[in-house]
Amino acid sequence: MAFRKALKRTAIVGGGAVAAVFGLSQLIEYRKTQAQLAHVAAEAELKVPFADELPSRQAQLAALQNTEEFDVLVVGGGATGAGCALDAVTRNLKTALVERSDFSSGTSSRSTKLIHGGVRYLQKAIMKLDYEQYMMVKEALHERANLLEIAPHLSAPLPIMLPVYKWWQLPYYWAGIKMYDLVAGIQCLKSSYVLSKTKALELFPMLKKDKLVGAIVYYDGQHNDARMNMAIGLTAARYGAAVANYTEVVRLLKTNDPLTGKERVCGARCRDVITGQEFDVKAKCVINATGPFTDSLRKMDNEETQNICQPSAGVHIVIPGYYSPDNMGLLDPATSDGRVIFFLPWEKMTIAGTTDTPTNVTAHPIPGEDDINFILNEVRNYLSPDVEVRRGDVLAAWSGIRPLVTDPSSKDTQSICRNHIVSISDTGLVTIAGGKWTTYRSMAEETLDAAVKAHNLSSEPCKTVGLMLEGGKGWTPTLYIRLVQDYGLENEVAQHLAATYGSKAFDVAKMAQVTGQRWPIVGKRLVSEFPYIEAEVLYAIKEYACTAIDVIARRTRLGFLNVQAADEALPRIVQIMGKELDWSQERKTAELDAAKKFLYHEMGYRSRSEQLTKTTEINLDYQEVVRYKKRFHKFDKESKGFITTVDVQQVLESINVDIDENALHEILNEVDLNKNGQVEIDEFMQLMSAVKKGQVSDSRLAILMKSAEETLDKRGPVTVDRSGGGV
Fold first, then answer.
1. Can you give the pLDDT at residue 624?
2. What keywords appear on the UniProt entry (predicted)?
3. pLDDT digits (tens, 9 = 90+) for 187-202
């Protein structure tokens, strides 16, 4: 098997004599203009068969089944797989892509949401005089600039602060960050700068003041990873690629080469996961872009082939937005165990991560409690003591599997390849493995170059540099104003639609229903505190969403932002999808159950009940016990030792508060550990103890009972809203 390390040697950008004549700013503008003209020319050459409307999933499946032979069949619908499909179809190759789950359902939707070159990789390159590592950073910085250009609605530069607590570290880190700017060359987003202690605290007031000497701010890119993945895949579909999610490869098809007599891969036997129908997809070349599942497909080709994937789990958590400024991230360059932790604003929340631990390959990774607590502890180290970092403030948590790879052609087969590798097996199966989100495009380009050469495909040159992605063309920062003015959408909803769908936001707005209110005129929210609207569910189906999980996890990001809010939105989402897709009641129930399990296991929802279960010791003082027993007995008037929804409803009615019975049942169910339909006094005491410790925050039952008690004492009205809660 022939392996080669995929490391593209990009020339170092230099100003030289030209810069001396024109000046750096003029040189930058000149090169940008030349690049833009080249991009316009490249796009002008391409035909877009489905510019007006995407083919349906059924039409895509029909194309897969009825096409006599594709030039390229890509297996895997993550960032790299979608990138390969887009690269191939824009080279005028007949292209197909199949994904056994949903697009971006794996690692590509569970990243740190950064588009970056890798500051720590550059540090290693300099310290170890490692040219390969240096070139890897340079390539990533080039791709960072390209990605920010081709999907401006989904990505933006983000300033990241590196706080410094020792004077000698200030020049050390400054030199490293300045080198990062220099390596980026004319593609540097904004120049890094040094801040005094006072200015650093002004920009990041939550920062720990003690011993702080200053900070350094540098710029990287940030994006909505799952939506970016979708944009790449949808763009490939617009250009004519036959793409289908929930279509798994059962086995590879092979034939004997008439010239050499050797066995060659010539396609795949596929199965529609939703209907169970199987069919063959013939292709001159099959590309394996399955991420952590790389070895599974390679073993379909040859059972005796050596594993190259060494999976590593990275856990992230989401906490409320008040933990960080709206537009400033934080980098912890040296955690207690040597890892790097990012602390970033994202979608009006705060994301923190990641960990890096060996794991087994699974389609359903689960965030571990140890990893969640590790991240929280590291966050505490950098935030002011005034900010209480509570376990209960974790709104969502997830684990993504990073597909690190080894190169069997190297002498040390156990050493991890720092970049990606492209391999071509004896039967012609092309595998692209490893790498990082930021470099998906260059990885795809190199993979297609290798595929074209190995299979003698008639191909045009790569055209994906500067090729605008779905929704990018026609987007402007003020596009949301037109949505407000033309359709009567809320300002926050309009901003969200513009930032998610770009120029396609108008298509979503057209599908929005009238609210019946004076304002907003259209756009019914799925949940009150997030700008996601019901029309997005309908539009998600056009974007090949097949399940409720697809909607809450990847078409919208609700499941990644707040699992409790996602859980509340699920019934309406299932109702809308069921009507549009003609689901039976049995299918609706199955969808609801599957989505709840996804939130419970993969998005960290189970942690809420676990925190209460683990609180076996009630850590309350005597006065607190007396106070909480008194509160409990205001609801348990018959001294049964437990309360039910009926008890709570009676108290609420007495103070003129009306809460839906189903909502009330959900509120009690969060605390009902043994699931017997009632909350015992011990369970209530465990809840209050967990709230005191910070293990649970903003419990709806705790807030409701406290508010009701205060109102009973005052005999005044009280309003109880859903708190949002943590997990």
1. 84
2. Calcium, FAD, Flavoprotein, Metal-binding, Mitochondrion, Oxidoreductase, Repeat, Transit peptide
3. 999 999 999 999 999 9
Query: What pLDDT does residue 704 have?
Result: 86
Q: What is the pLDDT of residues 58-115, one digit of tens each?
A: 999 999 999 999 999 999 999 999 999 999 999 999 999 999 999 999 999 999 999 9
**CA–CA–CA angle 606, 79, 475 (5° rounding):** 100
**Angle at which helices 479-487 and 491-501 cross, to 10°:** 130
In this predicted structure, the answer to whether residue 9 has a pLDDT above a threshold of 80 is: no
- With beta carbons less than 8 A apart as the criterion, state whether 396 and 603 touch: yes
Confidence band for 600, pLDDT divided at 50, 70 and 90: very high
Write out the DSSP string of 416-480. Answer: EESSEEEEE-TT--EEEEE--GGGHHHHHHHHHHHHHHHHT---PPP--TTPPPTTTTT--TTHH
Q: Are 215 and 161 in contact (CB under 8 A)?
A: yes
Distances in Å between the Cα of 429 and the Cα atoms of 77, 436, 516 are: 17, 22, 57
Given a contact cutoff of 8 angstroms between Cβ atoms, the answer to whether 544 and 245 are in contact is yes
Helix (H/G/I), strand (E/B), else coil: 404: strand
Residue 607's pLDDT is what?
Answer: 62
Distance of alpha carbon 64 from alpha carbon 638, whole angstroms: 67
Is the CB of residue 22 less than 8 Å from the CB of residue 32?
no
CA distance 173 to 166: 11
User: What is the distance between the alpha carbons of residues 366 and 315, in angstroms, rounded to a whole number?
Assistant: 9
Nearest to 446 by CA among 428, 432, 427, 465: 432
- H/E run at residue 710: helix 700-714
The pair of three-digit structure tokens given for residue 48, joined into one six-digit string: 């877009």
Other beta carbons within 10 angstroms of residue 157's beta carbon come to 15
Tens digit of pLDDT for each residue in 646-694?
Answer: 888 888 888 888 887 777 877 887 787 766 778 888 888 888 888 887 7
Q: What pLDDT shows up at residue 218?
A: 96
- Spell out the residues 6+ positions from residue 595 whose beta carbon is closer than 8 angstroms to its own: 547, 548, 549, 552, 570, 573, 574
Q: How far is residue 73's CA from residue 270's CA, in Å, rounded to a whole number?
A: 11
How far apart, in whole angstroms, are the C-alpha atoms of residue 447 and residue 271?
25
- Residue that the structure tokens 């495909």 belong to: 457
Q: Which two tokens stand for residue 570?
A: 């699920």
Q: In 3-state terms, what secondary structure has residue 607?
A: helix
The per-residue DSSP string of 611-644 comes to: HHHH--S----HHHHHHHHHHHHTT-TT--SEE-
Q: What is the pLDDT of residues 246-266, one digit of tens each?
A: 999 999 999 998 878 899 999
Residue 339: per-residue pLDDT: 75
- Alpha carbon distance 34, 236 (integer Å): 25
Closest CA to 479 of 440, 507, 448, 446: 507
Residue 563 tokens read as 């699992």
Which pair of tokens denotes residue 116?
């970056």
Q: For residue 482, what are its two tokens?
A: 């037109």
